[in-house]
Model the fold of this input.
Amino acid sequence: MKKIGILFGQENTFPGAFVERINQLNVDGITAEPVSIDVVQQAKPTDYAVIIDRISQDVPFYRAYLKNAAIGGTAVINNPFWFSADEKFFNNALAEKIGVPVPKTVLLPSNKRPDDTNENSFRNLKFPTDWEYIYQYIGFPAYMKPFSGGGWKSVYKLVSPDDLFNKHAETGQLVMMLQEEIQFTEYFRCYCLGQKFVHIMQYEPRNPHHLRYVKDGPPVEKKLLEKVRDYTIKLNEWLGYDFNTVEFAVRDGVPYAIDFCNPAPDADVNSVGQANFDWVVDHAARMAIERAQDWKKDSMNLSWGKFITTQF
Done:
């Protein structure tokens, strides 16, 4: 019997529905359950062919457990090694390299020095920074956000250089990136599962969280939806993510990838709505079953993106 496990934290609706859906499908030789962890012994395999990770970004112990599980052959979704290395600024650079439009973006040094550093630690950093070039390149309004991490934490809208400096002073040791504002006419949030299943949702990020998923939005051109779908798959193929969301802001008919590093994306029925919830539960279950069926003993069963496996 091959077991599929789900590792989760405070979320309540998706994990149970995911387990229930797999067991409802009644695939011969496959069962699902919440992950149970006791003693974590180095290099000892787990009982799971597949684990869906929903929480290790917040719990370092779980991240270490999942890496150990992967060494033992568990197909961890998403790959915990890449999940540990990934960050938003690099993703933007990769997107530009593979031809997916992204907003103009620059990386900013942290406002406060990291612990155990002094001015000598930054002798390779030109001072002062060429702020005039940045203002001309990015323009205003602009957004400043952490170069890594998610959840709309420490995100600022900026309207002028003075606004930038005042708000940058609030960010402490966070490394931030400055990004042009995309004034959009349409906005989409897309689930991507298994680097092939895509569910495009009309989305309004300016609404309160529980009202962001648009149920009855205006019709969208098929050509634009196809481009959004293609870009979504391309990004996840290169990043190697099997469970992710990608957000696009459309300006002048061009979908710009705004946020595509969400390897434990919101899947709560109370925020995404019943129809979107049903889609992600069913397709996550089917993806996990496929991975369990493809599981090979004494092998590395992780997904790796084209960035790792392909030369440009």
